[in-house]
Design brief:
Elements: H1 6-24, H2 30-58, H3 65-72, H4 76-88, E1 92-95, E2 98-101, H5 103-126, H6 134-141, H7 147-156, E3 182-183, E4 192-198, H8 203-211, E5 219-226, E6 229-234, E7 237-242, H9 243-246, E8 249-253, E9 275-281, H10 287-295, E10 303-309, E11 316-320, E12 323-327, H11 329-332, E13 335-338
Antiparallel strand pairs: 1-2, 3-8, 4-5, 4-8, 5-6, 6-7, 9-10, 9-13, 10-11, 11-12
Helix pairs in contact: 2-4, 2-5, 3-4, 5-6, 5-7
Length: 339
């Protein structure tokens, strides 16, 4: 008969006890952590579903199982389970396969949207996070930030009414400022419009629109429309947009007939020997970079000259009052001037 040393038996017993504790310790064991992760994942899906339904209702569209599944990247079977859970919590109504939010569901959705848009505003104004990453970062935070933290963040930023894309930020009691306008693809030929909002999803289309020079506050003119899209004038160029891309841009139709399609000059266009007067820092210049430029004295009315050009053109040194400031080309392009 095999004899086991009491010391070894005690060690085995100790290892088994420690393993059981690490697996099942209340609140901290691996099993409980796994269950909590599942619950968190499920909560994220519930909140994403509420946001999607709210967004569709806000556009006078009817959300479906397929639209939810496509937007959230899960199967329709999983969406069916989420719908059942939403209904059991009285967050949605189901009437002849039509999905709509209850008042409680709308309040819940607005809380998530408020956090998302506040965090995008924070990233835009207080950090150096790239613009194309604002949305993805806010998607993470919206599911973890408390309402108390959101209220404190809002107060710290002066209770902004709109996020950097032009979307209204819901108030703490669920009120939303109305933004009236037309989608760019619904505006007629030869109309001059001002951009109110650019939808930041999907990222590929948002990136395309930004690369073409479209941003909140920009004035453009519709030259012509067709089934495939439209042609617009801005910054001395004529640009083609697809109908899908144009449908992501909300605009205000301006009551004026004169539109000068001329590229604005920026500090990057300044040559040695020329003096430029600052008109404005472009709306796309935000956060830490905007504050840095303002601290250098680069404000409307300030006169700037080129002190030294890099042989490779980047960076260049500029003289602002009595201070030499080095700026990269992409930074100088954010400063509109008149020569």
């Amino acid at each position: 008969m095999l004899e086991i040393s009491p010391v070894i038996a005690l060690l085995v017993f100790f290892v088994i006890v420690m393993l059981l504790i690490s697996l099942f310790y209340p609140g901290k064991g691996l099993f409980h952590k796994y269950k909590r992760m599942q619950q968190n994942d499920n909560r994220v899906l519930i909140e994403d579903a509420l946001k999607h339904i709210f967004d569709y209702e806000n556009q006078n569209l009817s959300p479906t199982l397929n639209s939810l599944a496509g937007n959230m990247g899960v199967s329709t079977d999983k969406i069916s389970d989420i719908i059942k859970e939403l209904k059991s919590h009285k967050l949605i109504l189901l009437q002849e396969h039509k999905i709509s939010l209850t008042n409680s569901g709308k309040i819940y959705a607005l809380k998530i949207i408020r956090i998302h848009r506040l965090w995008e505003s924070y990233l835009a104004e207080e950090t150096g996070v790239k613009e194309l990453d604002w949305h993805d970062e806010a998607e993470k935070v919206e599911h973890t930030m408390t309402q108390k933290d959101a209220d404190e963040l809002s107060a710290k930023m002066g209770n902004p009414k709109f996020d950097p894309h032009g979307d209204p930020i819901p108030t703490t009691d669920g009120k939303v400022f109305n933004v009236s306008g037309k989608l760019l693809n619904n505006v007629g030929d030869n109309k001059i419009v001002k951009i109110l909002h650019i939808e930041d999803e999907p990222k590929s289309i948002y990136s395309e629109l930004r690369d073409k020079g479209l941003h909140k506050g920009k004035e453009i003119k519709i030259i012509s429309k067709s089934e495939n899209g439209l042609k617009i004038a801005l910054d001395g160029k004529e640009i083609k947009l697809t109908s899908i891309a144009a449908s992501k841009v909300l605009v205000d139709v301006l009551e004026k007939s004169e539109f000068i399609n001329k590229k604005s000059k920026t500090l990057a266009d300044l040559s040695i020997g020329e003096i430029g007067k600052v008109i404005q820092l472009l709306p796309t210049c935000r956060g830490q970079q905007r504050r840095r430029l303002l601290d250098f004295g680069i404000v409307p009315g300030a006169e700037i000259s080129v002190y030294m050009k890099n042989p490779l053109d980047d960076p260049a040194a500029y003289l602002v009052k009595d201070t030499i400031v080095a700026l990269r080309n992409n930074q100088a392009q954010e400063i509109e001037i008149v020569i």
